[in-house]
Amino acid sequence: MTPDYVKLVQDTLLPRIALCRQSFAAARAGDPAAAVRDAMAGAACVGKIKPGMSIAITAGSRGIADFPELLAAIVAQVRARGADPFVVPSMGSHGGATAEGQTALLAKLGVTEEVIGCPIRSSMETDEIGVLDNGMSVRMDRHANAADGIILFNRIKPHTSFRAPNESGLAKMLSIGLGKQSGAENCHARGIDNVGIFVAHMARMKLERCKVLFGIGTIENAYDELARVEVLDSDGMLEAEAPLLQEAMANMPRLPVGPLDQPTASGTLDVLIVDEIGKEFSGTGMDPNITHRFSSQKMQVHLHISRLVALGLSPRSNGNGNGAARADVITSQIEEAFDREAVYANCLTSQVLMQAKLPMVMPCARSAIQTVVKTSGAEDITNPRLLRIPNTLKLEYLYASEAMLPELRDRPGFEVIGELEEMQFEDGRLVNPWPEAH
């Protein structure tokens, strides 16, 4: 039976859309195992690995390009130097803040003992390795702390909620990832706007007091592909990581709104349709660097999207619907998949409680899209400026509404590759197909 509130939008006409493609400048590293081998071979700090050492290698909760292959390559290179590697899930409070949940989350990302070729030692137990001047406890994963050496591994990328010299990358992996739930909670204790400060303070203390040998950071291009692998010595790591963050920021894709000579998308959009949200696309489910819907009011907003609808939650997110709150409307699929254990643990640790909220829920994609179109405030709701993307990580292909085509046809690096077509639905799902990504 159709709810009465759905009847209020069911006559809303939806615009025709055309498949489009964006082209971005993009370096590519090629074979991930070879990239790891060459990067480690060229770094003097790798000589800190000695035969017989037990080596903890970090593994986070992000959908890093070639994640299992990169980890397996690092394990192989450590073992080739005579050491005994193991992997430590290093993701703060993610995975429901449980050892089993973090192992399961890695498996969802393709990282298992069989794939990477070494044990995974998961625990939420931590050791206190010091106290900051403000009394904040600095925590370290117990398995990693007991090892003879630690290798940090993470993707270097702009954070979704703060700006600092070190954002998402090796410093954050060290301070928050290896801090587990208790350490992550401490780092977030003074609010999201101060996280960047405490990431640096905690990372520096751990570099001084823990057995960190070096870090391996990856940089990705705008197609979510491995661009290069960098090895950074523990000595001067934070300073060496800072320019890599700026490179990663310049590599990010963007929505085709606003002048290309600006560093990010800018201007206005009536409607954005996001097919899927999930932790493998962004720590916040949808990357605010793309949507400009940030948790912190201190973040600069250049793109204003009147209405945003999210249609589904990726199965690989393991029920963590963190980020649904940034939409105006979601579908019942997201609501039903939304795991409070995973989301609430994440939100209580980060202290960003708005992430736990659910927006208006409509029963299907059709009614959800009709709702955002009807309420978008577009000058002509029968012809809104609308974009549809698969997620906020992969922006090579997108659909654009008829109203946007005049401004997009002559945009450098942009091509309209499909004819205008009606939105197609099956069992309430939007099914206009996506081609294989680049």
UniProtKB/TrEMBL annotation:
GO terms for molecular function: lactate racemase activity. This is LarA-like N-terminal domain-containing protein. Residues 68-188 form the LarA-like N-terminal domain. InterPro entries: LarA-like_N. It comes from Pseudosulfitobacter pseudonitzschiae. It comes from the Bacteria. The lineage of its organism: Bacteria, Pseudomonadati, Pseudomonadota, Alphaproteobacteria, Rhodobacterales. Keywords: Plasmid.
